From TrEMBL:
This is Sodium/potassium/calcium exchanger 6, mitochondrial isoform X1. It is found in: Membrane. One of its GO terms (cellular component) is membrane. GO terms for molecular function: calcium:sodium antiporter activity. The gene is SLC8B1. Residues 1-21 form the signal peptide. It comes from Stegastes partitus. InterPro entries: CaCA_antiporter, NaCa_Exmemb, NCX_ion-bd_dom_sf. The chain crosses the membrane at residues 94-114, 135-157, 163-186, 198-217, 229-247, 361-379, 391-411, 423-440, 446-468, 489-508, 528-551, 558-577. Its main location: membrane.
Length: 587
């Protein structure tokens, strides 16, 4: 995918509990022995808050206030209180409608922060570290694509009532991407897929799904098994790097003349090239040529105030004139949010001549970025923290930011970025990660409220709303890449990203909970629906593993239609299972 996709391993520093397939029944007290377990379930009879809809409308507010299970620890807003107490009972539908609108806004925040700020900074970090395209693709690229999924899973895993969202979201997103997204790419641009990279990705993903299935089936996982689960992604990364190295060596040995491309055998142009690197290698040059066309002929220097105002303008007037009215309408809606994010998050662009150095704005970032981290980290848990009970933490951070900002402003110029400018990419990475985590926590809390009000399980909400919301950006970007003539890149992003999401979502979620509780993790599945999810995902991968080679690795429109029909059938079966129309026969 484009820059939005080239960013991805971010999750390790700013987030709490994550997982993809279950839910903690109860947080056990600290100090448990290593032999104890943390029970995780997607659906539990002890979730007393689900009983709120059984009460009369007049009693629901009091029930929410007096029931501990209705008190969400994560998130800035208690959505159950908002739905049942903030407005009169007859206006509860209005509260739910407003919450749904707020949910779509949160998805916009997630997508905008990831694509405009998180991904570019990860790309800059990758360039600064001089990572190869293959290494960056399976690490930063996967993280950029999967950031919303991973952070949503981590946020869901951290609370007893919402971990079921993680199972549905990661499994549901996996099915959505491998069927709807891959099928749409095949419909729009039929092509011959790279054979060995395709088989490699499908095999590793099937291994991840099977391992996850075993963990759910056995009902428990240990620290050693979790570390082994995480190491599977390390093996995948090493496999990609080694295979790319071997491929490049073979290609170099066969290609006797660099200028004469016709001497390269066809196999290197079709079956092995997993990463159509042309956009990645030429994107910066194209951008620089585009900008140079509009450069003033005579030297021109903007004032500090002009630089600040132009830096805070997210609208490109040249692009505005070329785009459709739908794009313009959406841009008008997103512009206020983009301005706020521009004020808080620095962005380093290695493709630009000045690396996107904006002296007044970057100095402002030294004040706003640390302050946003303090106020947003763990949903504002440190916003009111007092140092030794007397001095607020946020004020100390503000004073330090003012001090650093003054030093940078006095020791730099508007025209030349300082040598340490790349550190702003790290700052932007951390701030955008914190904001994505905070937004993901709000999404999880809000979906839990909708599940309670609509009497839907967290797994269904995860495989529908949460999976769609986190994957819709990938869907559009993959389809766009396919239309531009790079369908192989789109397919590679489909499978590479979800491998990362599955292994890191489940693995890190279990690991963080083990560290937090000093105990093993035990799973309790949500009955038949969990097996429908796992079985459908495994079946789609097996069918792709069999059908694509039989079609000589050509993904045509027939295969695309087949994948779309498969997803529709899966969705119907999952919903029928949720509403009890499909159930196991009790003996």
């Amino acid at each position: 995918m484009d820059l939005r996709v080239l960013l991805s391993l971010l999750l390790f520093s700013c987030h709490r509990g994550v997982a993809s397939g279950s839910r903690i029944l109860r947080n056990q007290p600290a100090g448990l022995s290593s032999n104890t377990t943390v029970t995780m379930t997607s659906e539990s009879s002890s979730d007393e808050c689900d009983l709120v809809m059984n009460r009369s409308a007049a009693d629901r507010c009091a029930f929410v206030k007096n029931t501990p299970d209705c008190s969400m620890e994560d998130g800035f807003i208690n959505y159950l209180y908002t739905a049942f107490c903030l407005l009169p009972p007859n206006l509860t539908p209005l509260a739910i409608t407003l919450c749904i609108i707020w949910l779509f806004f949160l998805f916009v925040v997630l997508g905008l922060t990831a694509s405009k700020f998180f991904c570019p900074n990860l790309s800059a970090i990758s360039s600064t570290l001089h990572l190869s395209h293959n290494v960056a693709g399976v690490t930063f690229l996967a993280l950029g694509n999967g950031a919303p999924d991973i952070f949503s899973a981590m946020a869901a895993f951290s609370h007893p009532h919402t971990a079921g969202l993680a199972v549905g979201a990661l499994f549901g997103a996996g099915i959505f991407v491998t069927t709807v997204v891959a099928g749409s790419v095949a419909l729009i641009k039929p092509f011959a897929v790279a054979s060995r990279p395709f088989l490699r990705d499908v095999i590793f993903y099937m291994g991840a799904v099977f391992w996850t299935f075993l963990m759910l089936y056995r009902g428990t996982t240990t620290l050693g098994e979790t570390l082994g689960y995480l190491s599977l992604y390390v093996v995948y990364v090493l496999t990609v790097i080694i295979s790319a190295y071997i491929y490049n060596r073979r290609k170099y040995s066969v290609n006797t003349s660099i200028q004469n491309v016709s001497h390269v055998p066809a196999e290197f142009n079709s079956s092995d090239s997993s990463d159509d690197d042309v956009p990645c290698l030429t994107g910066g040059a194209i951008q620089q040529d585009y900008e140079s066309e509009y450069r003033p002929l005579l030297p021109y220097s903007e004032s500090t105030s002009q630089i600040l105002l132009s830096s805070l303008n997210p609208v490109d007037h040249r692009k505005w004139r070329r785009k459709s009215w739908r794009w313009r309408a959406l841009k008008v809606v997103k512009t206020p949010l983009e301005v706020l994010l521009l004020i808080c998050i620095p962005v380093v662009d290695p493709d630009k001549e000045d690396k996107n150095w904006r002296r007044p704005l970057n100095c402002l970032h030294l004040i706003t970025a640390p302050l946003v981290c303090v106020l947003a980290f763990q949903s504002g848990a440190y916003g009111e923290y007092m140092i030794q009970g007397q001095f607020p933490l946020w004020l100390l951070v503000l004073l330090l930011g003012l001090f650093l900002s003054a030093i940078v402003f006095c020791t730099t110029t508007n025209d030349c970025p300082p040598k340490y400018h790349s550190l702003f990419a790290l700052l932007g990475f951390v701030v955008s990660a914190v904001l994505i985590s905070a937004a993901a926590s709000e999404v999880v809390s809000l979906l839990h409220m909708l599940g309670v009000v609509l009497s839907l399980s967290n797994t269904v909400l995860g495989l529908t709303l949460l999976a769609w919301g986190n994957s819709i950006g990938d869907c559009f970007s993959d389809i766009t890449i396919a239309r531009q003539g790079y369908p192989r890149m789109a397919i590679s992003a489909c499978f590479g990203g979800i491998i990362f999401n599955m292994l890191l979502g489940v693995g890190l979620g279990c690991l963080l909970q083990m560290v937090k509780t000093q105990s093993d993790v035990q799973f309790e599945t949500e009955g038949l629906l969990t097996w429908v999810l796992a079985g459908s995902l495994g079946l789609s991968l097996v069918l792709s593993f069999v059908i694509v080679p039989l079609c000589q690795f050509h993904l045509g429109r027939t295969y695309g239609i087949f994948l779309l029909v498969f997803y529709v059938i899966f969705l119907i079966v999952a919903l029928l299972t949720e509403f009890g129309e499909i159930h196991t026969i009790s003996t």
